[in-house]
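Quick question, first post here. What does this chain look like in 3D?
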Amino acid sequence: MQVKVPDTVFIRAGYSANAEIVLARAFDVLTIPESSVEFGNDSAFVYKIKEEKPKQVFEKSPVKIGISDGVKIEIKDGLAATDQIRGNKIDDKAKNKDKNKK
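> Answer (accepted):
Ran it through. Tokens below.
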């Protein structure tokens, strides 16, 4: 790989640099945190919230995934923008634990 550096930029020996190589881009797609996706047996799943009260109830749903940047992952099928999934909200139990520590 070659990088062209403009004549107006001074580069010193011994310095380091970071670069990002973009292999693919997607625009106007549904993305979620990759940590919200469970992988197993060559499949990907998310847990959709079916009920929130009196107790949270989840449903394991398969999804078709697309490209990822290591933080966010594209969802091609199996999830709507209006769906709520596990991992996007702190449940009330976790909030109460933090209050009791003070």
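The radius of gyration is 21 Å.
The CA atoms of residues 39 and 45 lie 6 Å apart.
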